[in-house]
Amino acid sequence: MTDPSNLGWLLDNFASRTPDVSHALAISTDGLVLAHTRALPRDRADQLAATGSGLVALLAGAARFFEAGNVVSNVTQLDGGFMFCMAFSDGASLLVLASPHADVGKVSYEMTELANRIGDALSPTVRGAPA
């Protein structure tokens, strides 16, 4: 897996150049923070990672139940903005928080571009597996 500081830099760059994005995280399916933007305190990143991994698992379960294939992404509209989740088939997800004024299409597009750039860098190694 890529050095977490490099992932943090990529996430910081993404958040700074994508309008209305405040925070971004890379998380594992078991709710661990792989990397996060500097502006997000670590304890808040841990809370968001746990919440986000639960949401991703819930969506994946619903997709299996309805035989709808894999979950590609999810956008949740909140009173205070948007939370975007983009699952990766190899066990990692990208979570993004944005303001209520964010262009949902633009943020989703930029998330896809980020995922394409970093690819396997967001893939956590399986616990106990040789690195």
TrEMBL record:
Gene3D superfamilies: Dynein light chain 2a, cytoplasmic (3.30.450.30)
Domain Roadblock/LAMTOR2: 8-98
InterPro entries: Mycobact_SerProt_Inhib_Rv3364c (IPR053141), Roadblock/LAMTOR2_dom (IPR004942)
Pfam families: Robl_LC7
Top-level lineage group: Bacteria
Protein's recorded name: Dynein regulation protein LC7
Organism: Dactylosporangium siamense
